[in-house]
């Protein structure tokens, strides 16, 4: 039934298609993929030949960023072209609650507002077939899911941010407990299943003249750490002590993801469609260093960047970004121009020659980098900004940050402290230069304040219920250093 509907849409669209077909568009977003987690970005274990080939066929960015250190805000930014602070979708849904921490986090928006004019809605209105495949995680209720945000088809996207393991679910293997993805046969791996769905969609799209937009958002490489046995065994033999990357299961998950991309690209090649397909590849945040369910397990390592997912430093927000379009984007090029998640929306419209919604465009924070991709032209942007008024298990405390040129300033709200780094000289953010360059710190602080006012960023406040005994809580009902019952009683008394 799914592909019958697609064929009908293809036929209808094909009847009204313009003689000059716009490019097909595929947006790959990998979950929790770190900056060095690919062969072409320097991994000393993970093998990604298909993505390496993709990078060689287009432009690879060294200074690309996610809009947030966690997933949901970055995904919302991709779909809206706006900073998370502007839409108040500033944490993963539903976030970590810390009711007795020093700062009280603001009441933030735990969905992508259907009132936003999404990238998918614009492309659908321009005659594109639109399909979402994989993770969504932009709202608990169905009204916020892909089929209500501009996608004609939704395969696998719903409220959760990771495959369901436990309570009947088996993670990356069926049963998936996913209301938008029927279970496959025993032994099926989720990522292989999603790539199969993508290949079937491409095959069906050949029968019409309409271009397509495929939003392929992987569940890989998010925990739970699971992969097929033969791939794990391969990396158990390849892993070396002292290497940057050492986890064979995670390595196998990276390869599963790379295989899926290879299958999609092969299908485009076999169908004669690759030459007119724009492909973008990125991640929603930095790599996860340690699995909080097992603190002794290294998931990945973002060295030379500091820290990782859920923290305030480069390891949490610097990500891979690759753009490829045969004949339009020069092969084997590298750019150190800073770009961010919000740029995806206007750039896709620019490359496809689509105007978009004028009212929505006026409030977009992303910029169109299509001329950089196709002509190598410079990009006019003063700075990049981040705002995360939340706590995260992996280390983040409420903060804002700005990067301008080589300089990056971080403001931590708990103690009103500033950290200043020169990323050209200190990519690992080891030497705080606030005292040495007070004028630069003042300049960037003023820029950060002005930006927060412009986007109406929500600022965390001092918590009247702050209690040092309970500030180490992970979330409501979980407390590490006292009894769970005592924490719950204290929570009840203060609500």
Which helices and strands occur, and which strands form pairs?
Elements: H1 2-15, E1 24-30, H2 49-56, E2 59-65, H3 71-80, H4 84-87, E3 103-104, H5 119-125, E4 129-134, E5 153-155, E6 165-166, E7 169-170, H6 190-205, E8 212-217, H7 229-238, H8 248-270, E9 277-283, E10 290-291, E11 294-298, H9 314-317, E12 318-324, E13 333-335, E14 339-340, H10 344-352, H11 358-362, H12 370-375, E15 384-388, E16 399-404, E17 407-412, E18 417-422, H13 438-455, E19 461-462, H14 484-493
Parallel strand pairs: 1-8, 1-9, 2-13, 2-14, 4-5, 4-8
Antiparallel strand pairs: 2-12, 3-19, 6-7, 9-12, 10-11, 15-16, 16-17, 17-18
Helix pairs in contact: 1-6, 6-8, 7-8
Mind explaining what this structure looks like?
The protein is of the alpha/beta class and 495 residues long. About 4% of the residues have low confidence. The longest helix is centred in the middle third of the chain and has 23 residues. 29% of the residues lie in helices and 17% in strands. Strands 1, 2, 4, 5, 8, 9, 12, 13 and 14 form a 9-stranded mixed sheet that branches. The protein has a 4-stranded antiparallel sheet with strand order 15-16-17-18, covered by helices on one side. The protein has a two-stranded antiparallel sheet with strand order 3-19. It has 14 helices and 19 strands.
Task: Name the shape in a single word.
Answer: globular
Strand percentage lies at 15-25%
Structural class: alpha/beta
The description of the largest β-sheet is:
9 strands, mixed
Question: Gyration radius, to the nearest Å?
Answer: 22 Å
> What is the terminal separation in angstroms?
49 Å
Number of H- or I-type helical stretches? 14
Helicity range: 25-40%
Write down how many β-strands occur, each being a DSSP E stretch of 2 or more residues: 19
For the residues shown, what is the average pLDDT?
92
Q: Give the low-pLDDT segments.
A: 7-19, 475-483
């Amino acid at each position: 039934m799914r592909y019958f509907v697609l064929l009908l849409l293809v036929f209808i669209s094909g009847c009204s298609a313009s003689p000059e077909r716009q490019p097909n568009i595929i947006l790959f977003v990998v979950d929790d993929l770190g900056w060095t987690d690919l062969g072409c970005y320097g991994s000393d274990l993970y093998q990604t030949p298909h993505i390496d080939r993709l990078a060689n066929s287009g432009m690879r960015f060294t200074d690309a960023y996610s809009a947030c250190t966690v997933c949901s805000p970055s995904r919302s930014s991709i779909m809206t072209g706006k900073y998370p602070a502007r839409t108040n979708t500033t944490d993963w849904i539903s976030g970590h609650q810390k009711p007795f921490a020093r700062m009280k986090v603001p009441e933030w928006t735990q969905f992508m507002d259907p009132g936003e004019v999404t990238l998918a809605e614009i492309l659908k209105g321009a005659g594109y077939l639109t399909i979402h495949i994989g993770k969504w995680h932009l709202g608990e209720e169905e009204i916020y899911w892909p089929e209500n945000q501009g996608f004609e088809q939704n395969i696998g996207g719903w409220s959760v941010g990771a495959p369901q393991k436990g309570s009947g679910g088996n993670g990356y293997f069926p049963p998936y407990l996913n209301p938008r993805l029927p279970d496959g046969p025993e032994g099926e791996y989720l990522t292989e299943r999603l790539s199969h769905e993508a290949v079937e969609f491409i095959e069906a799209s050949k029968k019409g003249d309409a271009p397509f937009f495929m939003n392929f958002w992987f569940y890989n490489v998010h925990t739970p750490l699971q992969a097929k046995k033969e791939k794990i065994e391969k990396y158990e033999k390849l892993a070396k002590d002292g290497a940057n990357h050492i986890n064979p299961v995670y390595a196998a998950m990276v390869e599963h993801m790379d295989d899926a991309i290879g299958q999609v690209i092969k299908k485009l090649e076999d169908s004669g469609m690759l030459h007119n397909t724009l492909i973008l590849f990125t991640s929603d945040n930095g790599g996860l260093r340690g699995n909080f369910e097992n603190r002794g397990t290294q998931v990945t390592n973002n060295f030379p960047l500091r820290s990782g997912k859920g923290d305030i430093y480069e390891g949490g927000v610097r990500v891979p970004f690759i753009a490829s379009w045969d004949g339009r984007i020069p092969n084997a090029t590298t750019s150190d121009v800073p770009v961010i998640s919000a740029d995806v929306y206007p750039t896709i419209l620019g490359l496809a020659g689509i105007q978009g919604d004028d009212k929505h465009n006026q409030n977009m924070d992303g910029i169109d980098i299509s001329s950089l991709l196709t002509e190598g032209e410079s990009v006019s942007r003063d700075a990049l900004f981040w705002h995360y008024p939340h706590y995260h298990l992996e280390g983040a405390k409420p903060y804002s940050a700005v990067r301008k040129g080589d300089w990056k300033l971080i403001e931590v709200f708990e103690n009103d402290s500033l950290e200043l780094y020169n990323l050209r000289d200190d990519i690992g953010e080891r030497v705080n230069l606030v005292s040495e360059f007070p004028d630069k710190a003042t300049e960037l602080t003023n820029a950060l304040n002005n930006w927060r006012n412009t986007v109406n960023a929500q600022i965390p406040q001092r918590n009247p219920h702050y209690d040092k005994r309970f500030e180490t809580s992970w979330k409501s009902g979980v407390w590490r250093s006292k009894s769970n019952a005592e924490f719950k009683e204290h929570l009840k008394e203060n609500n």
